[in-house]
Amino acid sequence: MSLSIKQHVETFARLFNRGAGPIGLDLGHNAIRMIQLADNAERISVIAAAETEIPGDLADGASAREYIVDVIRKMLADGGFRGRESVSCLSNDSLRIKSLRLDTTDPAQIEAQLKTEVAHRFGLDADTDEIRYMLAGSVYQGEEVKNEVIFFGMDRQSIARHLSVLEDAGLIPVAVDAVPCALFRSLQASLRRSEDQRLVSVLVDVEDLYTTVIIARGQEIIFVKQIPIAAARLTAEVASRLNVSVSEAKLLRARIKDNAESVDAATRQAVIDAMGHITEELAKEISLCFRYYAVTFRGQRPTEVVFAGGETDEATLLNALTRHLGVQVSVAKPLRGIDLANTAINRRRTVEMSEWAVAVGLGLKGMDLSTCGLSTYERN
To answer: 147 is in which domain, residue-wise?
Structure first.
């Protein structure tokens, strides 16, 4: 399914004019989250939200696809969602993202260079696959000024498989977004004051397979990095060190997060020790992103990192990030300021609900964040 830019604008205008935005669908490796928002000019509210965890032992292939389709159908039937239009995103392992420095600023030349040189480097076909980019701004390379471009590439087969799952589940896909864009949109709503326009903000999202680092200046993303170190590596290391299965290691980590006292002290320490060098490795990789930004853009140093995703309650990782980055690390609150009164959204382990950041960002797509009521309503 493909919509033109004009059709996208008309669709989003129609959705929000009726009082309900599209369903934001975050189809992750560990969970499926769906949320639908409404903007009534006074405040943004949640119309409906639903979440289902994906079993860790679910095999890939036809059985996994059938399970996901059935789960989405049930969430739609029971969740109180209005309409079936949806905005979703491809998983990070389906995306190719790379920061590039080009001599040209001409859009036609940039697109031609990305399609001829960069697409081939990533094994993409410029004629059939999706090639996108965003301008990050002027950067210094020695004494020369270059044009920094963030390249996004997606193979057409992954998009087709993704859309077929949504359509079989009864959804009407009106847009497919990229994870970094959805994440930043969930943060962007709070960056509308004039003093925020030069603010350098950093968002780190740790999911199952990848950690995504986003650096932005004001309302513009200027750096995106995918790091293949995330929750799955932490769990695998615990399984290896403690000589247990991956599912047992995942359950053990969850028990420690939920109630540390439910696990004996020796086992808790063994888990922490097992994850130690992985968290240190990840923190070092993120600190390299800071260094790249400082050297490339020669701009204001970030003073805070906002931490999102399913690992925000992992104390060892938070401590490692704070130590390596030398800045304050806070947990994302993507639903802060959004009225949750009319939905029984599950708060799970953390009150911040940072694991909803991608879904909220997808649900906000098409909403005019400069006029929405997010800043005027604060849920206690």
So the answer is: 5-232+279-374
